[in-house]
Automatic annotation (TrEMBL):
Domain of life where this protein originates: Bacteria
Keyword flag Transferase: yes
Keyword Methyltransferase assigned: yes
InterPro entries in the record: SAM-dependent_MTases_sf (IPR029063), TrmK (IPR006901)
Keywords: Methyltransferase, Transferase
Single GO term (MF): tRNA (adenine(22)-N1)-methyltransferase activity
Descriptive protein name: tRNA (Adenine(22)-N(1))-methyltransferase TrmK
GO annotation, biological process: methylation
A Pfam short name: TrmK
Length: 230
């Protein structure tokens, strides 16, 4: 993968970035996404943020080699610490991390997140954590997409400011994804369902509270998914 040939996962994330955006790409790695969007003249400005020195240096080299230093600034910092009020950021992308980590980054940088008008988030797992954060912090889902690439399944969540209410099924499965019920969506949740049922069967048959709690959690999720797939 490079800035000319993005993965389908990152292309999907990029497709939701607003035209003419001032973008903060958090955990940018090689800065492939902002470079790709800048070369297409889809964004006016971008920050490529990295907390680890190696990826930070890789991003710097990539931006220099593409001749995009006038459009993209590579900054080293933890999460949204790289964003400043004067940057005028409109869109924030965070891709390729677990849902709980993305939610943690947003919570820790809540003041910075609120400067933007759109969040485009691609959790590798546990998107539920992001939906829970969004409900609590008055961000609403305006789009959701699920895709398969190299035998892996990815969800993309797009948030804009506004209140929303989600029930348990919506939090787990995604309200828009659940409504669309695509082949990839069905494949993902059939896979999860089989795994949960396997774990449930292997739980010890005793009355310890932690076992009872785990059994209840699994049965609840299994029921929600079965209803969505029926």
């Amino acid at each position: 993968m490079n800035s000319e040939q993005l993965s389908q996962r990152l292309k999907t994330v990029g497709s939701y970035v607003s035209s003419g955006a001032r973008l903060a790409d958090i955990g940018s790695d090689h800065a492939y996404l902002p470079c790709y969007l800048a070369k297409k003249q889809h964004i006016d400005f971008a920050i490529a943020g990295e907390v680890v020195k190696g990826p930070f240096q890789s991003a710097e080299r990539q931006v220099r080699s593409e001749g995009l230093t006038d459009v993209i600034e590579v900054r080293m910092g933890d999460g949204l610490d790289v964003v400043r009020a004067e940057d005028g950021i409109t869109d924030i992308t965070i891709a390729g991390m677990g849902g709980p980590l993305i939610a943690k980054i947003l919570e820790r940088g809540k003041i910075k997140a609120d400067l933007a008008t759109r969040l485009i988030l691609q959790p590798n797992v546990h998107a539920l954590a992001i939906r829970e954060w969004a409900v609590t912090n008055d961000w609403k889902l305006v789009a959701e997409e699920i895709l398969e690439e190299n035998q892996k399944l990815y969800e993309v969540l797009v948030l804009e400011k506004g209140a929303m209410e989600l029930n348990s099924a919506d939090l787990l499965l995604g309200p828009i994804l659940r409504q669309a019920r695509s082949e990839v969506f069905v494949k993902k949740w059939e896979r999860e369902l089989a795994e949960w049922e396997r774990i449930l069967q292997k739980l010890p048959d005793d009355d310890r509270q932690e076992v009872k709690d785990k059994r209840w959690e699994l049965k609840t999720k299994i029921q929600l998914v079965k209803e969505a797939l029926s």
